[in-house]
Amino acid sequence: MPAQFKASQVRITGRVQGVGFRDWTVREARQLGLVGWVSNEADGSVAALLVGPDDAVAAMLERLWKGPRFALVSDVTSRNASVAELPVGFRITG
Fold first, then answer.
1. pLDDT at 82
2. Is the Cβ–Cβ distance between 7 and 42 less than 8 Å?
3. How far apart are CA 78 and CA 58, in angstroms?
4. What is the reported pTM?
5. Exposed, middle or buried, 18 (CB in 10 Å: 0-12/13-18/19+)?
């Protein structure tokens, strides 16, 4: 991974399933030039891996607090992630 890139594992909670959160995340992430994935989790949260330039990852983390129109985000937690290989594109995995 290039030195100026950052990888963050993210968990978003609140009303984030059934509101188009994953599709919205893909659009926003691609707009920022990020690669990674987004997935619904069994506990009702949404998980994501964001990989890209530091400023783009930071911008996406801010956008996740708002989410799509009908979402009601209660928390966004992120931690640094280790990525052996850069993901190709940004996709929904579950």
1. 85
2. no
3. 10
4. 0.92
5. exposed
Tell me what pLDDT residue 72 has: 98
CATH fold label, 5-82: Alpha-Beta Plaits (3.30.70)
Q: pLDDT by residue (tens digit) across 14-70?
A: 999 999 999 999 999 999 999 999 999 999 999 999 999 999 999 999 999 999 999
DSSP designation for 64: H
| Residues identified as active-site | 22, 40
Return the H-helix or E-strand segment holding 65.
none
For the record, the structure tokens of 22 come out as: 């994953």
Q: Which two tokens stand for residue 56?
A: 């783009």
Residue 83, both tokens: 């990525």
